[in-house]
Specification:
The protein has a single domain, classed as Beta Barrel (Porin), CATH 2.40.160. The chain is built from 3 helices and 19 strands. Strand 14 and strand 15 form a beta hairpin. The termini are far apart. The relative contact order is 0.13.
Length: 364
């Protein structure tokens, strides 16, 4: 029973999970449009299975205050099987006038405590040309729950690059190992250590007129341990790694037609005193997008995935039907429907429903 609940939290009872992650990604052009805009709202909703919904929300607000001081607010919220996070980030940033002066920027930021994360604060220094070309080195101080001996400190390097050859967004962070006290009736009963690292990267090349390769990548790693007192013996250790990546190629095949070929992959590893868990997934996403008008596109396609979960293997196939709506240069809305194609085919029409996703991207 405990193992079943654990696998449910990780989404392993959903054999379509890798295809779902690939299908619920915004087109790379829309992703960069949101990254480069000053104000925006982005959301994706969908059904992971009959009982679990997926939702991601992103909000950006940019407000000039005075002189060269900018106030920024960013919301990042995601609900998935084993991902329940919410981050509200408030930032004061000094930036030079675009394309003039010394391209140096300084920022102060703060994220208050929420139900899903502890508060943190920090300071950053960086290069600032404009919203499409900037680089920052941030020092972040986190807060543990309960008492601690060292506050976790993270070093972050993040930025954007835009030129005639490519668009790039990256974020790398490393949390320096920190120690934490565990108290009971004001007496220390043990202490632990924690460290983490991660990388997010999206790159889209547009050197050739009809062929544009790219990559979306998200990697994270967490290590923690607990030593009990007064025995001073190791009582618990946990190591977790998670990677999702999708190399892709977009090819223009006609004046109105574009083909997207993606190769999604997912790797997850968990090891502690009672469990060693491994999951590997590779897949294929093939989508054809046809422009019916300046505001309406039709998408059809095919997805395939192969999974190895603790040496147990399976594969899945499904079709894709979608509609994309574009309103001027500000609003994008998409509908994606998975269609069951594994043999034998279902006998009832309703059984062809194979997960549904809605996406909205609004920049202003």
């Amino acid at each position: 029973m405990i193992l079943f609940l654990f696998l449910s939290l990780l989404g392993d009872d959903n054999t379509l999970y890798l295809m779902d992650r690939s299908l619920s990604l915004l087109p790379v052009e829309e992703e960069f449009r949101f990254l480069y805009c000053k104000n925006g709202v982005q959301t994706t909703h969908g059904s992971r299975d009959s009982e679990n919904l997926y939702g991601i929300y992103r909000v950006k607000i940019w407000m000039p205050l005075f002189s060269k001081i900018i106030f920024e607010y960013n919301l990042e919220k995601e609900d998935d099987y084993d991902i329940k996070k919410e981050e509200n980030l408030f930032k004061l940033r000094w930036i030079p006038e675009e394309n003039s002066g010394i391209p140096l920027s300084v920022s102060l930021f703060f994220s208050p405590e929420s139900s899903k994360s502890n508060r943190y604060s920090g300071m950053g220094f960086g290069y600032w040309e404009n919203t499409k070309n900037n680089h920052f080195l941030n020092v972040v101080i986190h807060e543990f729950e309960n008492s601690l001996t060292e506050s976790p400190i993270s070093i972050e390097l993040q930025g954007c690059v835009n030129n005639n050859q490519a668009d790039l967004h990256y974020k790398y962070y490393k949390t320096i190992k920190a120690k934490k006290k565990f108290l009971e009736n004001n007496d220390e009963i043990g202490h632990g250590e924690y460290d983490a690292m991660g990388l997010k990267n999206t790159i889209y090349y547009h050197v050739l007129p009809k062929i544009s390769p790219g990559l979306k990548l998200n990697y994270s790693k967490f290590d923690s341990s607990y030593i009990s007192l007064p025995e001073d013996t190791l009582a618990y250790m946990s190591n977790t790694g998670n990677l999702f990546a999708e190399p892709f190629i977009k090819t223009k095949v006609s004046e109105r037609g574009t083909i997207h070929i993606g190769f999604p992959m997912n790797w997850k590893y968990i090891k502690n005193d009672s469990l060693e868990y491994k999951r590997k997934w590779i897949g294929l996403t093939l989508l054809y997008n046809h422009s019916l008008s300046n505001h309406l596109d039709l998408t059809i396609g095919l997805q395939k995935s192969w999974r190895n979960l603790d040496e147990q293997k399976n594969n899945e196939t499904r079709g894709v039907l979608g509609i994309d709506l574009k309103f001027s240069q500000t609003t994008y809305f998409a509908f994606r429907q998975g269609i069951e194609l594994d043999l034998p085919l279902p006998g009832k029409f309703k059984d062809y429903n194979n997960h549904t996703y809605f996406m909205l991207n609004h920049c202003f």
